[in-house]
């Protein structure tokens, strides 16, 4: 019966959290203030996935990392025409539509195809660039794969949420489609034999092949309707004023032929420069920045997670049924859901209510809340491991329950749980990599930038592995030292 009550309480708590978020959908009959809101805020927030050359990717400009490419130039011109500053938010391609829906970005300029399915959820500008759909394969397989039919029985890769993913699924029967969020990971899968080919848009396919002599790109014969091909800017549904402003900018770009005379050549120039200077040493600042953010997330999450975890453990041990039930519901719910989902919910869900919530803060909050549930169980087990006689002796000496916990129970419990607690701290360093999915510049995020900038897949991952090992190994040794001092004390 008690478990039934706890389950009902958990459902009530979940309902209380999700109910306010259900009212965030923009109604069709609302007055369009999309353009006015952007001008009032003074900035245009554009979402993209910067692993898609020549549309958007990263390059070193005057020693600094900058976003470059066709889409970046379009975003800059659109912001300039609107009279506002441009802010770029780089995240996984399959998270962009969610970010747009929850007001984390004002527009998506990421070579997005205006498919009929997407048009039901968002508004699109006019198409600004069109290209065929290509297949990228290993050059050694050139004689083996020449058309779509040749891939029967094979695994073909495509970016999650992309037009290419649907094309492979619909037009390549007998093949297995493997979707990943980053193109550089797909290229790595291709070179390691995990997939036989990767479906990409023509300009991107040619960009990767031009920078990797082991790859080959060709037109396999995808059939694409006119309402699916091409790239357009995506906006929230019912934003006609903003769409009209974007179309005006795109019309100027077409009239002045900026794509062919400026944007595409500049993207090619950055790609050529990157190819000449793509040694790992030249990207050490990426990894240094990633280490900084990873440590910030870990230390902050450990601090608040330990405080909340201690509180939850005491609540679960409390004789107060309400406090006990709340703690049990929280711990079981958090431990029963993936950290990735929690990170995305805090950023896109809670962040839709608190518009100013930065990705870094959302990542820290989600990681701390997740860690607290596990720390709570560790502390609870440590407290319960202390013989009841210890507490009874302390109380018989006149100590209050608070003093008993503070001076008798907690110090002994801490000694018992320190190995498990230390393991949680070490694990947190590795789990923090999940926040890269929402665009937090941690070590994993920076590694992906290096992969897309250098067109190399294995070496950046190897360096990231070594860095993670150094951080976790160093922390383990530090925790072991502290553990020995506790035991000698």
TrEMBL record:
> Which keywords accompany this UniProt record?
Amino-acid transport, Cell membrane, Membrane, Signal, Transmembrane, Transmembrane helix, Transport
Where are its TM segments located?
A: 293-315, 458-479
SUPFAM superfamilies according to UniProt: MetI-like, Periplasmic binding protein-like II
Q: Where in the cell is it found?
A: Cell membrane
Q: Which SMART domains match?
A: PBPb (SM00062)
UniProt topology in membrane: Multi-pass membrane protein
Q: This protein's superkingdom? A: Bacteria
Q: Which residues form the ABC transmembrane type-1 domain?
A: 291-479
Q: Which CDD domains match?
A: PBP2_GltS, TM_PBP2
Coiled-coil intervals: none
Query: Residues of the signal sequence?
Result: 1-28
The record's annotation in Gene3D superfamilies points to:
MetI-like (1.10.3720.10), Periplasmic binding protein-like II (3.40.190.10)
This protein's major location comes to membrane
Q: Pfam family example for this protein?
A: SBP_bac_3
InterPro entries, per this entry?
Answer: AA_ABC_transptr_permease_3TM (IPR010065), ArtM/GltK/GlnP/TcyL/YhdX-like (IPR043429), MetI-like (IPR000515), MetI-like_sf (IPR035906), SBP_3_CS (IPR018313), Solute-binding_3/MltF_N (IPR001638)
Which family is this protein grouped under?
Belongs to the bacterial solute-binding protein 3 family. Belongs to the binding-protein-dependent transport system permease family. HisMQ subfamily.
Name of the protein in question:
Ectoine/hydroxyectoine ABC transporter, permease protein EhuD, ehuD
């Amino acid at each position: 019966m008690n478990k039934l009550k706890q389950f009902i309480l958990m459902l009530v708590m979940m309902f209380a959290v999700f109910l306010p978020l259900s009212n965030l959908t923009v109604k069709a009959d609302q007055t369009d203030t999309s353009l006015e809101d952007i001008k009032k805020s003074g900035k245009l927030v554009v979402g993209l996935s910067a692993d898609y050359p020549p549309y958007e990717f990263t390059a070193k400009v005057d020693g600094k990392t900058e976003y470059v490419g066709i889409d970046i130039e379009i975003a800059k011109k659109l912001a300039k025409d609107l009279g506002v500053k441009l802010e770029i938010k780089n995240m996984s391609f399959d998270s962009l539509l969610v970010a747009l829906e929850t007001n984390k970005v004002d527009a998506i300029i990421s070579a997005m195809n205006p498919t009929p399915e997407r048009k039901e959820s968002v508004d699109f500008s006019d198409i600004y660039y069109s290209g065929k759909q290509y297949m990228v394969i290993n050059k050694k397989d050139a004689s083996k794969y020449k058309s779509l039919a040749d891939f029967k029985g094979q695994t073909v890769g495509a970016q999650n949420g992309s037009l290419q993913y649907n094309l492979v699924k619909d037009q390549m029967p007998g093949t297995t489609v493997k979707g990943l969020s980053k193109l550089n990971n797909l290229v790595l899968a291709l070179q390691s034999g995990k997939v036989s080919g990767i479906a990409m848009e023509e300009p991107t396919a040619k960009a990767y092949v031009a920078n990797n002599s082991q790859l080959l790109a060709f037109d396999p014969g995808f059939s694409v309707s006119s309402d699916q091909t091409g790239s357009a800017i995506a906006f929230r549904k019912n934003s006609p004023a903003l769409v009209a402003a974007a179309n005006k900018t795109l019309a100027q770009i077409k009239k002045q032929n900026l794509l062919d005379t400026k944007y595409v050549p500049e993207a090619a120039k950055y790609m050529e420069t990157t190819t000449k200077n793509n040694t790992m040493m030249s990207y050490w600042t990426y990894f240094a920045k990633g280490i900084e953010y990873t440590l910030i997330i870990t230390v902050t999450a450990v601090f608040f997670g330990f405080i909340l975890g201690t509180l939850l453990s005491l609540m679960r041990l409390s004789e107060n049924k309400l406090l006990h039930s709340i703690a049990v519901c929280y711990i079981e719910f958090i431990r029963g859901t993936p950290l990735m989902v929690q990170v995305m919910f805090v950023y896109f869900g809670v962040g839709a209510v608190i518009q100013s919530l930065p990705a870094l803060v959302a990542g820290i909050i989600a990681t701390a809340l997740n860690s607290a549930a596990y720390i709570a169980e560790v502390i609870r087990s440590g407290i319960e491991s202390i013989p009841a006689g210890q507490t009874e002796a302390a109380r018989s000496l006149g100590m209050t329950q608070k003093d008993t916990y503070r001076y008798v129970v907690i110090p002994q419990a801490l000694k018992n749980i320190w190995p498990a607690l230390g393991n949680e701290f070490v694990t947190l360093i590795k789990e923090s990599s999940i926040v890269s999915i929402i665009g937090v510049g941690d070590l994993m995020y920076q590694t992906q930038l290096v992969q897309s900038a250098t067109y190399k897949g294995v070496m950046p991952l190897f360096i990231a592995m070594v860095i993670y090992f150094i951080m976790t190994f160093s922390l383990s040794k530090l925790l072991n030292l502290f553990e020995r001092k506790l035991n000698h004390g």
